[in-house]
Amino acid sequence: MSVFRKLMKHEKFQPLRFVFIGGLATLVHILVAAILIFSFPLLHVYLINITAFLFAFMFSFLGHQYITFQKEGSIVKFLGMSLLGFLLNNIILTLGLLFSLPDFYALVIATMCVPLLTYVVSKNLIFKGSANG
């Protein structure tokens, strides 16, 4: 069995797959935010953050369902967990702005702080369905 297949199938590599998909979702969030911040400088940073979050949310859900956990997941539960993570993200963003960080730096820091919580909740509460197959 190739190394790639082992990474894709074996449960002990699930945290690595989570980091990979979560990292890509975070990159989607940051790239969408960067495009919007630099293309539409008059848009409010919270509107930009919401838009970037929605793109990253869909990427994350599908990636975790088909690659990380390889099980059916509840998009409703994932949305609930993601919204709580997004609330935490916005609290951190607000703190960054209060400390006079530039919008983009505050947004990047806020976006990078939530993944561990997401993994624990996703593994134990969201992706418990039958295996994809």
Task: Compose a concise summary of this entry.
The chain has 133 residues and is mostly helical.
Question: How would you sum up this structure, described in words?
Answer:
With 133 residues, the protein is mainly α. It has one domain (3-126). 77% of the residues lie in helices and 0% in strands. It has helices at 3-9, 14-39, 45-68, 75-98, 103-112, 115-126. Helix 2 runs antiparallel to helix 5 (103-112), helix 3 (45-68) packs antiparallel against helix 4 (75-98) and helix 4 (75-98) crosses helix 5 (103-112). Belongs to the GtrA family. It is found in: Membrane.
The profile of the biggest β sheet is:
none
Shape: elongated
What's the mean pLDDT score?
87
Structural class: mainly alpha
Ordered list of secondary-structure elements with their pairings:
Elements: H1 3-9, H2 14-39, H3 45-68, H4 75-98, H5 103-112, H6 115-126
Helix pairs in contact: 2-3, 2-5, 3-4, 4-5, 4-6
Entry keywords:
single chain, 133 residues, mainly alpha, 6 helices, 77% helix, membrane, GtrA_DPMS_TM, transmembrane helix, GtrA family protein
